[in-house]
Amino acid sequence: MSNLVLSAPLKGWIAPLDETPDAVFAERMLGDGLAIDPLDSTLHAPCDATVVTVHRARHAVTLRAANGAEILMHVGLETVALNGAGFTVFVKEGQAVKAGDKLLAFDLDLLAQKARSLITPVVVTNLDAFTIVRRDQDREIGVGDFLMELAPLGETAASSVVEADEVSREVIVPLVHGIHARPAARIAETARDFTAEVALAAVNRRASAKSPVAVMSLAIRHGDTVQVVASGPDAGAAVQAVAALIEGGMGEGGPVPAKTSAGAVSEPVGPVEPPRDGVLKGVMAAPGLAIGKAVRLAAADIVVREQGEGVAEEEAALAAALAKVRTRIEMAAAQDDGRGGDKARKAILGAHLAFLEDPELAAGARRLIGQGKSAGHAWRKAVGGYVEALRGLGDRRLAERVDDLIDLERQVLRALSGEEDEGAVLPPGAILLADELLPSQLMGVDPGAVAGFATARGGPTSHVAILAAAMGVPALVAVGGAVLGVEDGATLILDADGGTLRVAPDAPALEAAQTTLAQRQQRKAAAKAAAHQPCVTKDGVRIEVFANTGSVKDAEAAVANGAEGSGLLRTEFLFLDRETPPDEDEQARQYQAVASALDGRPLIIRTLDVGGDKAAPYLPIPAEENPALGLRGVRVSLWRPHLLKTQLRAILRVAPLGQCRIMVPMVASLDELRAVRAVLDEAKRELGVVETIELGVMIETPAAAVTADLIAAEADFLSVGTNDLTQYVLAMDRGNPELAARIDALHPAVLRMIDLTCKGAARHRRWVGVCGGLASDVVATPILLGLGVTELSTTASIAPEVKARVRDLSLDACRDLARRALDQTTPEAVRDLAKAL
């Protein structure tokens, strides 16, 4: 095996590792090498290699050369504490790179202020297989210059962890920044003191504890649960020593975080006696009113044996079951394509297929089969490890995947047992009752027979809720254990809009519901027929009814439903679920396509609204204790102004000029609007645009509402985002299913914020719209008009009904209703008032 020459990955001054002010590097706990004091801000590959790890804090990259040499480059010291701030990564794990390729960039000024030191160690971590035969140091070096030469000592040692007769111990990691380079080195140093093979296992992945790079590759976070396992003559002592080291915190310990509601999945609920009045309360998952008979669904437990009947037999059984489920999912997706199936169903089937093909999931199951476990036991344990990990991350988008995994677990276990999971045979008008429904259960029933459903658990943003809305099926979630005490066949009135399930209603209640249902259907049909007529109140006041959009198809649906424009284009559809941001040309094409689909109607484009629960991989937003109060909306745009400028330039290229208006999300002060306007003015100058382009503000924070008079002095319009405004005014996380029933935008406190917004805008003759969920609540329409709102941007499907409601109203009556609504004490009282109008 020939020697490997490493070139300098960074411009700067080369120094020996001894001068690194960190014992982990200076004492060569991680390996031997050199350090570079940087004079530039881009880290390059020192040789042709494969990316082994990119630390989630973006400050460190490990490469593996073709000959097996592992090279760790660690930008600055104690930079892990920045949680990615100031770093931009250009590569991902598993990617092949050439010498000189960019790996990451960093903000030198920020690191100089925040980091302990800028000095960047470059170390070879597997010195059991390589030695440094030549190196340069004590001079200035440029990228690509000679750095050091490695010679192999023999065959590269592979880390093998014997799994027989293991000793193990579970540890909850207290390190605030997780197990990054420094603690990984300490763990490896401790593990090497023992003859036993020692490993760490987390989320169905396993790594030798004697390899710091392998340990770092597990990406273990604060609060994660890991297994310390060992086998060999001193295995017990090794496990005890490594576990004690981790539990001690290594100087970086902190309180172990509790699992957040965003990631938590509650335990199954037991039956509870329904209340005496027979009225159960829950949270709307999909709107509507239904009358039908109770049909209880319960997923039977699937029993699996633990011990297998031979590795070959169990592996074959698992492969056959996975293939069977894969075929079933692919056939369902193909059928949807053939009949133009809805996007929600196709997306969920796609998620199930992606999980089924996850190599780590299958590998975890096969590893357990290799230990003598049955295919069913191995699959259940492998899926269970991922479920627990996702539950504990506190990331709402990831936590939503738990139901998909549980669903997939059941499908594969049924395939292993040979049972066919046939959909329940339902009577017409069935209202399904369950602890919690899985997506495949709802997709497996006859939609023509289902009138609605109610579940004891679940949240309003689950995949089942999305499916219900797509199917047009009224649904309630988080009803509690009382729903499980309802007898099969009981007559039910499911009023999802009102958040109630009435059990065994008396004749007057049943008759009233039937009348209401008939009236709703008639009104809906009449509204649809009149959808394209002008929207004017009884007393001749023009009200604009727009629709919220996120794609060309949404824009087409808006026009078909009589919407007079789009009051909110969510541009996140272009920015999420990709490795790099869209360039100006791509954005311009997409915005033009939406504008063209609206056929000249106004289009209000919201600038990028990421952060919080919407993450973009290429935006290294630091980990935040409360993301809803951190870098999101306009704060991200001003943090990365080049992205904002690119987006504004793309919007300015849409023809005809002036069809597009621009709206800025999450504004809290006038200074933020001024900063965006400055970037807009610069973009206009560059493109030679002299026409006025309207720039408005989303009112989503209490700060913006109470200073609306100041903001309106310089904003061209204001639009209230009631979803976020409600959660901030009430101090309740709108993604928390435990609080969902109490989060109502018709709360008087929220209405008072909208009132302040309208009054502040009126002082400067600015118009006010509402583009949040409250605009689609027909009950709220008269109150919003009475407060001074003149534009409502709804979901496309509800636009005809909102327009019809506006035509039935006089502004004087709306103003009187709004005044009385502001004096109520509960949202329920406000709704009762509005329904009486």
* Biggest beta sheet attributes: 8 strands, antiparallel
Q: Number of DSSP strands?
A: 34
The parts where pLDDT drops under 50 for at least 5 residues are: 155-164, 258-266
The largest beta-sheet arranges its strands as: 9-5-6-7-11-3-2-13
The helix fraction, in percent, is 25-40%
Summarize the structure.
By secondary structure, the chain is an alpha/beta fold. It starts with a strand and ends with a helix.
Topology:
Blueprint: E1 4-7, E2 12-16, H1 23-26, E3 32-38, E4 42-44, E5 49-54, E6 60-65, E7 70-74, E8 87-89, E9 96-97, E10 102-106, H2 108-114, E11 120-124, E12 130-135, E13 140-141, E14 146-152, E15 167-172, H3 181-191, E16 197-202, E17 205-208, H4 212-217, E18 225-231, H5 235-247, E19 279-281, E20 283-286, E21 289-296, H6 311-338, H7 343-356, H8 359-370, H9 375-392, H10 396-399, H11 402-417, E22 430-434, H12 439-443, E23 450-455, H13 463-471, E24 475-477, E25 491-495, E26 500-503, H14 507-529, E27 544-549, H15 552-560, E28 566-570, H16 572-575, H17 584-597, E29 603-606, H18 634-639, H19 641-652, E30 660-664, H20 670-687, E31 695-699, H21 702-706, H22 708-712, E32 717-720, H23 722-730, H24 748-762, E33 767-770, H25 781-787, E34 791-794, H26 799-807, H27 811-822, H28 827-835
